[in-house]
What does this fold into?
Amino acid sequence: MNAKTPDELLQQANDAGSKNWQDPKRYMWLLGPALPVIGLTALGAYAVAPKKLRALAWTGPLLIHAIIPALDRMIGEDQSNPPASAVEGLENDKYYSRIVKAFIPSQYAMTFLGAWLASRKSTPLADSIGITLTVGAINGVGINTAHELGHKHDRASRLLAMAALAPTGYTHFAVEHNFGHHKRVATPEDPASSRMGESFWKFLPRTVVGGIKSAVKIEKERLARKGKGFWTTENELLQGWAMSAAFFGATAAVCGRRSIPFLVGQAAYGASLLEVINYVEHYGLKRQKDESGKYERTQPEHSWNSNHIVTNLFLYQLQRHSDHHAHPSRSFQALRHFEKAPQLPGGYASMLLPAYFPSWWYKIMDQRVIEHYKGDLERINMDPERRAEIEAQYEELAARLAAEHAGSLPEGQAEAPVATTKARARSGKSAA
It folds into this structure.
């Protein structure tokens, strides 16, 4: 009998331990469906005592932009990572899918209550705005619930995904994200991948318009392959838009015309939260083309990740984004953290406010992107209208990083990357 090497013995011990692996966050995941319950409770308390509890009208923005980022900083990063051998068991555990689906009933109850409160004549304008943003914030997280369900292959999950998207009127996301974004991610052609030097406010109209156009094109092509035109009951875009129209119509019928500004406002804010997360997830990252002109396969290096535990609990581990793009249908509980994937300085929730202020965002992220590509500015997905300006601005940093990287290469390979980077920076500077 052959003796095993130390490496083989270590692997055997790891495999044995992983067979008994238990999810330490199993019951913490209940924070996900608890979010609309928190919103519903806050609005319910406001309805009972609107003068004394006015601050509760602003629960949503406070949670998203203050409380969750603060908890991320206090509690820190997740120390657990499921081993490969535990993935199948996690996927087959129905407990997790029930958690995701449990979000939707309280989401709808909260939205109806918000519409009623915001449309009352006695509700002050400031409170109506707060209620609108509170409902919009939680429905924005509902888009992430739809994201989790929309990647499943069964019809029931896809319908529930549409239901979660209906309050924001963003049901086309279920089509474009799965069959557009995942195909073109981290390329200049993807409307949902932001470019270095592109502010969120420039990205927002590009991604909204581009996403809708992409969804229509994708669905037309799918239906054409079945020999059908766009105007058919099998069109998933029409199905989703009908669900949104029915929801908006029913709510307005019950709560009156005064609820319409609320419905539009919360939908716009909720959808904008999705798009600001999109802005963060792939900022400046770019898949390279091979000799045939085809883009390389999506790798962990093409997504910004974060392992901050609190945001991960509320967003179903969306921050483990590299593993999600590697395995789109993998359920949230089985997603893994990759140390070598690009890491953000904070959780997704902490990055929202900086994203709204371009100079703040560029200060945090641009150098991080350049460091990721070791000073090679040509490898960055950059705003073409600002390329010359950016290359001139970061000429010295790029040259230094390229030199440091070249110094780590074998002798004879060190000079070319530095010279190339400097030449690019000089040409950009002269063009500017």
